[in-house]
């Protein structure tokens, strides 16, 4: 009852919406009549005039206003253009087609609904392809591009070539994105006034432009102004569960942890031996009552091996602990600075647990590099360059060569210092089962405060890899996510989005909630003559199939064409076998080849044909009746099972009775069907059937039973909607982060002065670092740590004397450092090609953003999995996810800044390697990896052979794929058939 009232209200609202558009239709038709008197040139001139008018408009509100104002004229121009094309032959997908269409009134209404940014529900065969020309033409006049999104490449090309005739006639350009196009061609297509393409091509281009392009020139798209999504339910609902992912080989790692590991291991061993010896000595000294000397040794061990087991044990003794504290205090007093230095030099290296820093001593350095005493200090490039400049014996070119040599040495050193100190930290500060655990060959961080495992988090700046190297668990990630977006979030980028399909009404809620798209049901051009019969219901599948075959045989005997719909490929095959046994000729729709499919569908309305198809949603080809078929009652659509979703059933029904043709539909259902078993429909029905006294082998039909089936369907729809909504809620978190990162990235690509961005980063990151060393909560300022950090990060060759950090406030220290770094950086740049410096700087930014963002994506994936497990801990995983994702994002932004600093002087060759890696990936090598989905019509199939060949040719190729949600064996199959995964097509999860 309630539903009925609701329907009444919604229904009448829709009627009101449509009625309101009627006067505009009249106005358009009136104008169109006037335009009939114009010459072709005069008509075309209108396009140019409007384009010029829009070119001068900058205010978006003004643009919107003008669009409204000229709508009737623009629509009339399109309609009039269509009229002028009648009789012309157009080549569409290599076939000649004669143009015979002039927009009907309902098509004008559909066009206006699209222009308003809504969904036009128009039945199959109502000519949606032509409807789209109206709002596309109008919105393209702004010069900001208008996109039409189709479900597959074939349809994109077909519709673009077909409707292209009209656009070109009116003076607009039109392009079409196809799977195999290189970037240069893509860019041309996007530059057109109107562009056709599939959702995945549009989405992948967005990801490549924003997540991978290294220069502005490498980007192909030009904004997200207006898009119409054809078969909108299929794209925004059926495909929405599979995000687009670009994955590539894990970033070429430039670290050499494995190479340095044995050396560092030996050094750590030596230090352990040394510290153990010191501990025994201390023990003896304590026994001899020489407390002060013993305390000094304890302090020394604490410096060299803070987690030494004997030391930790000895600290439990209050007296000895006091001795250590006393010694420590005295060493940190100013008077003892030299003493402290000497003490440190007696060790191989020292560890600062608090600052998580390590510092090699002279003997440590010597051990690691006996022949190169300076191996662990970055050279003072500034002075070196100044010296070179002063030399009279060198030409300019020679000077530059000399400088480059110094630079290279500096780079190599920087990398090595970084590797070794990171390894040292991994060995001496990061302890297994304290800071991390090793599980399943993975290093998992343990939260210091809660002791909770932070699955998926990774330490940055190479530390994680160093710990992995230490534990010998470094597993190479073969591929990693480089960029990802859900279809939902791609389409939310558009300023205005519209959609069209034969079936949106049942999903109106979802369209409204998620995309803010309202649905208007457009009346058909002619009254619908279709007859939908009640379902026929059987106890078993076998009985049901027998009945279907009988029905098909009878209809076929009359010559009436039959379209048999199934919900799975398996059922299609069973039916095909049964029909073969009966000697009934038929074809089976195979979604693999879109073009061939279109041919089969086109023939499906001919006298005596039988066609079997799985899931007709989003197929985009309508079935025209052959000669003499109308007299036989038109196309007969037989459904062999109710789909989980009412929408898919409506799609199937909608294949007959197009444009006022006759047609009938009937569904066959059995109690053994999944839908009936799983959603309680069978129970209810058994009761009803008992009342009717149904016997084995009998069939039953009644409108009450249809209702029962539909109740079950609504339940499943609701459940699926919630799961899609959930996916989106998770993705929303990522989406906001993506916007920030892509924004930063685009800034780096577009700016003429990347150095300015770097300096801004420096202004934030240096004070943060300095603060970390000098302003810890109730901790002593760590001057040595700061100096160490400065000297391994920047080639300043700074000494404690020159730095005088003790005499500076943190702010002064930061300012001093920023000044020094800038000076030395500018000096380094002064001898280099300015253009090269510019691109290198851009690189430093992009490299830092990309590398860390990819790590972040990886971590977010893991986090997503990890929070899922916390449901058991009575926590809302989404909230957990949001909180942790936020923390991780804050870390990410901080890390990006630090990485930029670290790379400012670090190996340019590393950065260059990254560039080479990316520039070696021309788009034609990028392959979209997409599991074929039998029975479902998916975008852009790459022939398997071609994909394999590509992999062989380009070992570093990047694969593009649509991620399949992880499906358990009992979950619904991701192909959308509605069957359990284990019983279905076995599409790889
Ligand atoms: P839909 O996408 O709505 O299912 P299509 O755009 O594929 O429908 O069009 C179905 C058929 O209707 C096409 O063969 C097309 O030529 C025809 N058609 C569409 N609009 C008109 C029209 N205004 N006049 C004549 N034929 C039309
Ligand atoms: Mg269509």
How do the strands and helices of this protein lay out in sequence?
Layout: H1 2-35, H2 40-55, H3 60-85, E1 89-92, E2 95-98, H4 105-115, E3 119-121, H5 128-140, E4 146-150, H6 153-169, E5 174-176, H7 183-191, E6 194-198, H8 199-212, E7 226-230, H9 232-238, E8 244-249, H10 257-287, H11 291-304, H12 309-314, H13 318-332, H14 337-345, E9 349-352, E10 357-360, H15 362-368, H16 381-390, H17 396-428, E11 436-439, E12 442-446, E13 453-454, H18 463-471, E14 479-485, H19 487-491, E15 496-501, H20 508-515, E16 519-521, E17 529-532, E18 536-538, H21 541-558, E19 562-566, H22 569-581, E20 587-588, H23 594-603, E21 610-614, E22 635-639, H24 646-653, E23 662-670, H25 674-678, H26 681-692, H27 703-750, H28 754-774, H29 783-793, H30 800-803, H31 810-830, H32 834-868, H33 877-905, H34 908-919, E24 927-929, H35 944-953, E25 959-962
Parallel strand pairs: 3-15, 3-16, 4-6, 4-7, 5-6, 7-15, 17-23, 18-23, 19-21, 19-22, 20-21, 22-23, 24-25
Antiparallel strand pairs: 1-2, 8-14, 8-25, 9-10, 11-12, 12-13
Overall description:
The structure is a single chain. The protein is of the alpha/beta class. It has 35 helices and 25 strands. The strands form 6 sheets. The chain has a 7-stranded parallel beta sheet with strand order 5-6-4-7-15-3-16, sandwiched between helices. Strand 20 (587-588), helix 23 (594-603) and strand 21 (610-614) form a beta-alpha-beta unit. Helix 28 (754-774) packs across helix 33. The longest helix has 48 residues, at 703-750. The two termini are 42 Å apart. Bound molecules: adenosine-5'-diphosphate and magnesium ion (MG).
